[in-house]
Design brief:
Strand content of chain A: under 5%
Oligomer: heterotrimer
Helix content of chain A: over 70%
Number of strands of chain A: 2
Largest interface: A-C, 40 and 38 residues
Distance between the termini of chain A: 29 Å
Low-confidence stretches of chain A: none
Low-confidence stretches of chain B: none
Largest sheet of chain B: none
Radius of gyration of chain B: 20 Å
Strand order of the largest sheet of chain A: 1-2
Chains: A mainly alpha (475), B mainly alpha (172), C mainly alpha (646)
CATH superfamily of one domain in chain B: NADH-ubiquinone/plastoquinone oxidoreductase chain 6, subunit NuoJ
CATH class of one domain in chain B: Mainly Alpha
CATH topology of one domain in chain B: Four Helix Bundle (Hemerythrin (Met), subunit A)
Helix content of chain B: over 70%
Radius of gyration of chain A: 21 Å
Number of helices of chain A: 21
Chain lengths: 475, 172, 646
């Protein structure tokens, strides 16, 4: 095996994040007042990694005996992970201070979860996917319980750990069956042998178990039941991290294993994917209506969004893969923005999380209300914002792939979901409020949210050129 | 039936029986002891598959070190008889058993009746080399160097996570 | 140069909106906010004027240029670009919007002084200009529609700007809602038209569609008629024509500068602009064009009669606007597209002036809007009075003010292309216009004060408000001179005509008859004399009379009552459309389907989830166990499916 300077530069985003994990631990060890320093260090190193990812986006290649790849779609996903987590770091600073969270471990774990995601997206070998998945998941389990004095936080952590380990079991079992039937762990070899392999029941079973394991991570029905409890119990920025970039990482694994299908191979799992997508979209949208807690509502909304993205897989079209990546970028930032604002409004005792608590925000904090409205409009898919084009591209892919009915279900569920997103907007502007709650708006949090808002608008204003860029890497 | 097959079924039976008994025990100490049995059975299966190194590690690390740790914790905490979480929810209990049985039956069917010959069969007679320490080390330090290093980070994350949640006092 | 920079006229107002909208509450300084708000629009105006002169310097054939920013959305065969089309028509509209818009922004600095949401007002106004410029400059239907929706949204936001204020029987929010809903009906028509265009011509780009129309041989005539009618339904919504005009009078609930900018000068003319832009489609749809003419004429006449008896100063002007918009559609329907756009421009000058003048009066009279409680304001507000008089003369069609030329041209074309009846009704409407305008003028500025002079102390408005009035007054006088008919201007011809005509080169209606110059002058003289007479009558009846204006009603009797209640159209719509819809939605959709079925279903789901968590939360680990069981059930079903499909 050779390891050259080229490998190092092409893998620079991963190297930066890995080094940041260690540096962050060192800073925490030697600095007394580490809150601000660590927060900014985390954010800046993540943004640096994001910049480098985009900078090297056209440097495609495989490295280190062919177990990891760089460039192309990998780097676009790396950008989503690092930039999204950078935004999370920004919105965490004020929150950590407010809730007296342990910041040292917090930022180390955020960085280490990002490292796991980047490994998944770069993987060329099932073993790398597995290590990345564990890296990400273990960091998430701990992050969910980082407010260890609060029962809910610990409960969320434990639940997530138990069920997550269970799901990981399916992933490993699936990998074992895939290896058993194909005799290889290399994704490229599997990719070229795929058309023959799909006729083997063991391979299809392995594929299905692998997908089920990740369907748990993306919270698709019926593997979603942990999501509302865990999102609600976790600290808000962590919920934002898990529901956006964490979900994107799981989708990255699915994109890798479905690569042959996007190349044109038979979509052996189509009925499974179609049914899971349908259930997720409808269940997420319908149950979200009944939610009063914003974090729970966003949890169910994230279930529905997982369903929309699965449509892109069910379509089995290359445009579907590009649509999914576009959707991931769009969803990451509109959801992060919403969580960022919730984190600002939320009190240290985890009150002010109900939709009714937002009544009258339109007059008292017009900027926050306007931003939250923007994210809600984007999430509900109103043009010309990012969310609309995300749905548009996956639905178009479904129609092209001959699954028009799936696109119709998607449209129907979008129509349902408009209700609960816009309810927030209506309450903010027209609701009568009795309690004049306190909220803390820090400029750093506002910066993070504003960056998200700008990306949401940008993705809506320039969808054509961005989707072209992504498509050029997917084909 | 070759000797290898006989040994495989023998160890596999021990592993499965150990697992079932472990899950159904009410006394945690008994459960841990059956878990040791399960690990021993699995180690035997590894041996049959020519994975000597992993078999030994399984015994030393899992059945040895980790189990001892488990026993210490359980005995120090003086856990009494475990109250079954299913006791109050017979429905969930029934459901779980039915589903588990269903999946077991389905997998058995797939493995034994649907696809016995279609998998890639590794020839057991090719030798013992792939399972040796040397072979594993070669793979780990060349081809799988990156995942191997990454596991280091995973352990760091796990340690940090365990500390932050589990440690009794954290200086603030 | 300036043409390439045309996107700045869109970007600058957007920047103004962002700055004022995001930072306005922190800037707090009214002068700074006002300067930003008005400044960006002023800059846009400068750019548009530069682009105008640049275009003027080009040969006629090269005066259309498209500035493409980027391809916005490409899916399959449909490509939509963010691209702006600079040609004679869009330049005229852009100059009116940014020019008049700038003056109204300046005026608003004075009018909105001290309002608690000063910054929000300017942010909305800038957003409006942004959307309006998109609508005007778009080179495709999609971008135009986005602008179209955008101005509708701004209109909604601005009508309800004082959302807690009482308006008539309800609140301004209700008025805003009414405007929104009525506009939605029209937008639906626009959308249908767009889809029909897309399926017929395979594109939504203006250039491609119009080329397709010109070359179309095997497109059935009915398709053209349908497209034209659908688009016109959109126009009736936005431009307040029968039957969708009802929202405009209620829109007066918004601040007066908004009424001037959006509900008089610019947004409501969007429908006229759209029909003019798609003129080539209408020329291919003779029946639809006839419908446009009839609807325009009918609206002009009906609205004018309602305007005769209204007592709220802004209501009179609102119905006057509806009526004048009717004139514009009459022009379009008579194939006089140039005349229609010409009237858009002159109307923007004098109607904005009238509204701003009314705003000045309302401002000086401490928010009193009832003209029966005015009187004799001439001596209190001389500057407002003079400018208001000029505007009234202009709208009444007294030569040589702006309104005369544009209105006369419309009447002349309706006579030529549609016949005598159209001319007669149009001329009568002109008389009515002159009458109600001078009634309004007299009741407000002449006669004896009908308010408590000891209590109410009317005052003239500050210069920041009256200077825009003066500029608009000058424009109301000279604005028509660029469109002097050929019979007077001799060899120069009609300047406005020769500027705009190339846009409508493909859209020439065959002239029915070519009456002589004598006829033209005769008709002109009749209408001018009639308008002057009506104006004098209005002046005599309402200024010198010692009677209280309230008593004047007696003579008119039942007709007055009918007019005063606006032909009971609101009540009619309420009974035939609103009530049944509300009933259906309340009792069928809401009570039965929503409450009964959907709510029941959701309540069922909700209670299911609640009961589940209620049972399971007693034992924390129980929850996870159950979740795992459900998950495994999913796995079991998946494997079952795999087995079955083997």
């Amino acid at each position: 095996m050779e390891f050259t300077l080229t490998d190092l530069t092409h893998l620079l985003p991963i190297v930066i994040v890995a080094a940041s994990v260690l540096v962050a631990m060192t800073i925490d060890m030697f600095t007394k007042e580490a809150d601000k320093t660590l927060g900014w260090f985390t954010a800046l190193s993540l943004f640096a990694a994001a910049y480098v990812s985009l900078f090297f986006v056209d440097k495609t290649g495989v490295h280190l005996s062919g177990v990891v790849a760089s460039g192309g779609a990998t780097n676009i996903l790396h950008f989503v992970f690092t930039f999204g987590a950078g935004v999370v770091a920004l919105i965490s600073m004020e929150y950590a201070k407010k809730t007296e969270m342990r910041v040292g471990e917090y930022y180390v774990l955020v960085l280490s979860s990002v490292l796991g995601m980047m490994l998944i997206a770069a993987a060329k070998d099932l073993a790398v996917i597995f290590v990345g998945l564990e890296q990400m998941s273990i960091s998430f389990y701990a992050l969910a319980g980082i407010r260890r004095k609060r029962d809910k936080s610990v409960e969320a952590s434990l639940k997530y750990f138990l069920l997550g380990a269970f799901a990981t079991g399916f992933v490993v079992y699936g990998m074992a069956l895939i290896y058993g039937s194909s005799g290889t762990m290399a994704l490229d070899t599997i990719r070229y042998a795929f058309p023959d392999l799909v006729s083997q029941p063991l391979f299809v079973l392995g594929l299905a178990l692998f997908v089920i394991g990740f369907a748990f991570k993306i919270a698709a029905v019926p593997f979603h039941m942990w999501a509302p409890d865990v999102y609600q119990g976790s600290p808000t920025p962590v919920a934002g991290l898990m529901s956006t970039v964490g979900k994107a990482a799981a989708f990255a694994a699915l994109l890798l294993i479905f690569r042959p299908v996007f190349d044109g191979a038979e979509n052996a799992l189509f009925p499974f994917l179609a049914i899971v997508a349908t259930l997720s979209m409808l269940y997420g949208a319908i149950v979200a209506i009944a939610q009063d807690d914003l974090k729970r509502m966003l949890a169910y909304s994230s279930v529905a969004h997982a369903g929309y993205m699965l449509i892109g897989f069910a379509s089995g079209e290359a445009t579907g893969a590009a649509g999914v990546i576009y959707y991931l970028v769009a969803y990451a930032f509109m959801n992060l923005g919403a969580f960022g604002i919730i984190a600002m409004i939320e009190s240290a005792e985890e009150t002010n999380l109900k939709v009714q608590d937002y009544a009258g925000l339109g007059t008292r904090a017009p900027a926050l209300a306007a931003l939250l409205s923007l994210f809600m409009f984007a999430l509900s898919g109103i043009p010309p914002l990012a969310g609309f084009f995300g749905k548009y591209y996956v639905f178009i892919a479904a129609v092209e792939g001959g699954a028009t009915w799936l696109a119709l279900v998607g449209v129907a569920s979008s129509a349902i979901s408009v209700y609960f997103y816009l309810r927030v907007v209506v309450v903010m502007y027209f609701g009568k409020s009795e309690n004049r709650m306190e909220y803390s708006v820090s400029n750093v949090s506002l910066l993070g949210v504003t960056i998200s808002a700008m990306l949401v608008i940008l993705l809506g204003v320039l969808p054509g050129s961005i989707i072209k860029l992504i498509e050029s890497f997917v084909r | 039936m070759t000797l290898a097959s006989v040994l495989f079924y023998f160890f596999a039976t021990i592993a499965v029986a150990g697992g079932v008994l472990m899950v159904t025990r009410k006394n945690p100490v008994h459960a841990v002891l059956f878990l040791v049995l399960n690990f021993a059975g699995v180690a035997g299966v590894y041996l049959v598959l020519n994975a000597q190194f992993i078999a030994v590690v399984q015994i030393i690390v899992y059945a040895g070190a980790i189990m001892v740790l488990f026993l210490f914790v359980i005995m120090l905490l003086k856990l009494g008889g475990e109250e079954s979480v299913f006791a109050r929810q017979p429905f969930v209990k029934t459901l779980s058993i039915v589903i588990a049985a269903l999946i077991g039956a389905q997998l058995t069917y797939v493995f034994f009746f649907a696809a016995p010959d279609k998998g890639t069969m590794v020839d057991m007679e090719t030798g013992v080399y792939p399972g040796t320490v040397k072979a594993i080390a070669e793979t780990l330090y060349t081809k799988y160097l990156l995942p191997f290093e990454a596991v280091g980070f995973t352990l760091v994350a796990a340690t940090v996570g365990a500390l932050v949640i589990g440690k009794k006092k954290l200086e603030d | 140069m300036a043409i390439e920079l045309i996107y700045l006229t869109v970007a600058l107002p957007l920047a103004g909106f962002l700055v004022n909208g995001l930072l306005g509450s922190r800037i707090k300084n009214e002068k700074a906010i006002g300067a930003i708000g008005a400044g960006v629009v002023g800059l846009s105006f400068v750019i548009v004027v530069m682009a105008f002169f640049e275009t003027l310097g080009k040969p006629v054939a090269e005066r259309t240029s498209v500035v493409e920013l980027y391809s916005w959305l490409a899916a399959g065969d449909i490509g939509v670009s963010i691209a702006y089309q600079v040609d004679q028509l869009s330049l005229v509209m852009a100059m009116v919007v940014t020019g008049v818009g700038f003056l109204i922004h300046v005026y608003s600095i004075g009018y909105m002084h001290g309002d608690k949401a000063f910054w929000r007002f300017f942010a909305y106004l800038n957003l409006f200009i942004f959307a309006m410029m998109n609508l005007i400059l778009a080179d495709n239907f999609v971008l135009m529609f986005l602008g179209w929706e955008g101005v509708g949204l701004c209109s909604y936001l601005l009508i309800g700007f004082w959302y807690d204020k009482k308006f008539e029987k309800s609140t301004t929010s209700e008025a805003a809602k009414k405007a929104f809903v009525v506009n939605r009906i029209g937008d639906f028509g626009f959308l249908l038209g767009m889809f029909l265009i897309l399926t017929t011509f395979g594109s939504l780009n203006f250039g491609e569609v119009f080329a397709g129309v010109a070359a179309a041989e095997n497109v059935p005539p009915l398709t053209f008629e349908l497209i034209a009618i659908f688009l016109f339904i959109g126009a009736t919504g936005k431009s307040a024509q029968i039957p969708l005009y009802v929202w405009l009078p209620d829109a007066m609930a918004g601040p007066t500068p908004v009424s001037a900018l959006i509900h008089a000068a610019t947004m409501v003319t969007a429908g006229v602009y759209m029909v003019a832009r798609t003129s080539i489609i209408y020329v291919n749809a003779p029946t639809a064009l006839m419908v446009v003419a009839v609807v325009g004429l009918a609206t002009a006449f009906f609205a004018a009669t309602i305007g005769l008896v209204q007592n709220d100063i802004k209501k009179v002007l609102a119905y006057s606007t509806v009526s004048q918009l009717g004139y514009m559609f009459l022009a379009l329907g008579s194939g006089a597209f140039v005349a229609g756009v010409f009237h858009v421009m002159t109307h923007a000058f004098f109607k904005a002036l009238l509204f701003l003048g009314a705003g000045s009066v309302i401002h000086g009279m401490h928010e009193e809007q009832d003209i029966q409680k005015y009187g004799g304001l001439k001596k209190y507000m001389p500057r407002t009075y003079i400018t208001f008089l000029i505007a009234s003369l202009a709208i009444s069609g007294i030569p040589p003010l702006a309104g005369f030329f544009s209105k006369d041209e419309i009447l002349w074309y309706s006579f030529m292309n549609r016949g005598e009846i159209f001319w007669i009704v149009g001329a009568v409407t002109a008389l009515l216009t002159a009458f109600y305008m001078f009634r309004l003028l007299s009741l407000t500025f002449y006669g004896k004060p009908r308010f408590d002079e000891a209590h109410t102390k009317p005052h003239e408005s500050p210069y920041v408000m009256t200077v825009p009035l003066m500029i608009l007054a000058v424009l109301s006088i000279v604005g028509g001179w660029i469109g002097i008919p050929e019979i007077f201007s001799g060899e120069h011809g009609n300047l406005f005509h020769s500027w705009l005509a190339p846009v409508f080169a493909e859209a020439n209606l065959a002239h029915g008859a070519h009456p002589s110059h004598t006829t033209e002058i005769l008709l002109m003289a009749i209408s001018v004399a009639g308008a002057a007479g009506a104006a004098y009558l209005g002046y005599r009846m309402y200024s010198s009379s010692k009677k209280q204006p309230g008593e004047l009603k007696g003579a008119a009797g039942a007709v007055h009552k009918l007019l005063f209640n606006k032909y009971y159209v609101d009540e009619l719509y309420d009974a035939t459309a609103v009530k049944p819809t509300v009933w259906t939605s309340r009792y069928l959709l809401w009570k039965f389907i929503d409450v009964g079925v959907i709510d029941g279903f959701i309540n069922f789901l909700g209670s299911l989830v609640e009961r589940l968590s209620g049972v399971l939360r007693k034992m924390q680990t129980g929850v996870a166990q159950f979740y795992a069981a459900i998950m495994t059930l999913g796995v079991a079903i998946t494997i079952l499916w795999i087995i079955l499909s083997l």
